[in-house]
Amino acid sequence: xxxxxxxxxxxxxxxxxxxxxxxxxxxxxxxxxxxxxxxxxxxxxxxxxxxxxxxxxxxxxxxxxxxxxxxxxxxxxxxxxxxxxxxxxxxxxxxxxxxxxxxxxxxxxxxxxxxxxxx
Length: 119
Hints:
The chain is α+β, with helices and mostly antiparallel strands and 119 residues long. The chain has helices spanning 5-17, 60-69, 95-111; strands at residues 22-25, 32-37, 40-46, 54-57, 73-75, 84-87. Strands 1-2-3-4-6-5 form a six-stranded antiparallel beta sheet.
């Protein structure tokens, strides 16, 4: 079962908020819900009903593999296209995949923090 846009976005929001030390807000524009850990972005959820996507940080090799494997995963919007991917609703975009990419993004950001900065 693939996640439709609203379910994709809701799944990503819930996954992010379940992680330790996460904050969220709309620092860039009212249409982008931004999730951070230690003031570092790891998830962006768009509120545009015509483009229901999420954007997450991803290791470049893993990102390219995901892009090859799923038609609705593309280089990230809004940020460095090498280190970020965007997921839209589509074939194979499941709740589990959504949870996995959100957690992977969070883990990448946590990995850049000193021990004292980690939640």
